[in-house]
Amino acid sequence: MSTRLKAVTLAGPAGALEAILHEREPGPPAVAALVCHPHAMHGGTMHNKVTHRVASVLHDLGAAALRFNFRGAGRSEGRFDRGEGELEDARAALAWLGHRYPDARLWVAGFSFGSWIAARLAASEPGVVRLILVAPPVQQSSFEVLRRCPVPKLVLQGTRDDICPLEALLLEFPGWMEPRRLIPVSEATHFFDRQLGVLGELLAGAIGEIARPTPR
């Protein structure tokens, strides 16, 4: 089975959105995953190393994975909108994935700011069946929607993250609706410096069986 990276342009609510699709050929995937990048005002784009690693792991497990730039990041049109417009960008990207792969299960993932977008998207889109959050910024943004969201949640969090501390997440996480799972990444900082391989292994170990194609 061959793989490819394909540059695509999506129609977003504020203009064109730049994106990269990790795709396998031939045959449709069992899972199509949207991966959201960190804060654009702090240099975050779809090329962020954590975002790229998450998308690559999902692709290696058999999923089609779409990374995209929020409005105002990279070559995407529009301006930063404090998370509200970015949520609609993600909704447009998810709709594009659903149209391209109508039989696939839809997953949403995000890193840091992108995990806040991913959480609200999963809570508001009934087609999403899996949510993956890496270093969610629970001190900076509200994750209240996850208290009522039944979508299965997998959270990976560095134990030495000084931007999104594990301690803050441990106070918030028990209030999120089941099913939920938290995987601490030992010694990892916010950007998983020298820990990207461990992050990828833990992610793959947690979801590998789920992402395999459904037997026909």
What would your notes on this structure say?
This protein is an alpha/beta fold and about 220 residues long. The chain has a single domain (about 1-205), classed as Alpha/Beta hydrolase fold, catalytic domain (Rossmann fold, 3-Layer(aba) Sandwich), CATH 3.40.50.1820. It is built from 5 helices and 8 strands. It has helices spanning about 50-60, 85-100, 115-125, 165-170, 195-205; strands at about 1-10, 15-25, 30-35, 65-70, 105-110, 130-135, 155-160, 180-185. It has an 8-stranded mixed β-sheet, sandwiched between helices. The longest helix has 17 residues, at about 85-100. It starts with a strand and ends in a 9-residue tail after the last helix. The mean pLDDT is about 95.
